[in-house]
Design goal:
5 helices; mainly beta; globular; 5-stranded mixed sheet; 11-stranded mixed sheet; 18 strands
């Protein structure tokens, strides 16, 4: 096997000012934190990519477009399924007073839960009041599968990865801790930011050396590195592919490091009007999302 070749290094999906249509592209500035720039309403220009995100033959053109609105790098229609690992950092398992797992802890998210950069994290009434339901943040390195993978070995696992992006696995701990199944508590509509870019597998040779942070209202609450994962990216892709086809467009959230809100004394919760930011290194950048509680005033975007 060989890694998936891409002609792009960093891919974004956006509405262009010139056309009012959705495009994919590569940022002109290779050093720009696109997510942060979009939140700050800075001008972002991108070389249009001809083709689709999941097409290895997609080509970077010379046509430059201006980003009017930054979107999730994958549409809900392009995401085949969203798989997530729980308790995949030893320090997070310890702070949650849960045993280090012997095998990956897996749960799924519905596609309706997925949102993009700048979109509000929506806390439904079923998860209010937030002080009781413990609405929480989780920065996560996220894998995007680029070609069908089944029964792959750990040695070949990275050859099926299109690239890497970021996510915030927003969780509601009261619901989560009342059952052994986490899908309900982590699957509410419009609660899981994804993005802001996909960095090609060709640009990240070692996914086990990516710094990740989460900042809430200017305070850094999580500061970790993917090197601390219990099950690394190779192991995760191989394990999840056993007896199961991981289709192109499959999204895999790989767990979060220590620092989550519900484990703190006193607990820190996401609440109406909050500014929640997750950042990942190696060119992925910052996902900025305001928090809105259903029934209360809307965040200013």
């Amino acid at each position: 096997m060989a890694p998936i070749p891409t002609q792009w290094t960093r891919l974004i999906r956006f509405v262009a000012a010139e056309t009012a249509q959705i495009h994919i592209g590569q940022p002109v500035d290779p050093r720009l934190d696109v997510g942060l720039a979009a939140w700050n309403k800075q001008t972002i220009r991108a070389y249009e990519i001809s083709g689709s995100t999941l097409d290895p033959a997609a080509r970077v053109t010379d046509n430059v477009l201006t980003v009017e609105k930054l979107l999730s790098p994958l549409s809900r229609e392009e995401m085949k399924v969203v798989r997530c690992l729980g308790l995949n950092y030893s320090d997070h398992a310890a702070e949650a007073n849960m045993a280090k797992p012997a095998a990956p802890v897996l749960f799924y998210k519905p596609l309706a839960s997925m949102i993009g950069p700048n979109a509000p994290i929506f806390i439904p009434k079923v998860a209010q009041p937030v002080e009781e339901h413990l609405s929480d943040y989780e920065v996560e390195l996220t894998i995007v599968i680029g070609k069908a993978a089944k029964n792959v070995s750990e040695a070949d696992a990275l050859d099926y990865v299109l690239g890497y992006t970021g996510a915030n696995d927003v969780s509601f701990r009261k619901h989560q801790l009342t059952t052994s199944q986490w899908g309900f508590s982590k699957g509410f509509d419009n609660t899981t930011p994804l993005g802001p870019v996909i960095v090609s597998n060709n640009a990240i040779s070692n996914p086990q050396d990516i710094p990740v942070t989460c900042t809430l209202n200017g305070q850094v609450l999580q500061d970790g590195n993917s090197s601390d994962q219990i099950f690394n990216v190779r192991q995760t892709v191989s394990f999840l592919s056993q007896g199961t086809t991981l289709e192109p467009g499959s999204v895999i959230l790989t767990g979060t490091p220590k620092g989550v809100g519900f484990a703190r004394k006193p607990a820190i919760v996401l609440k109406n009007g909050d500014d929640c930011r997750v950042w990942l290194g190696n060119g992925i950048g910052t996902l900025v999302n305001p928090v809105v509680e259903e029934g209360r005033y809307q965040a200013k975007l």
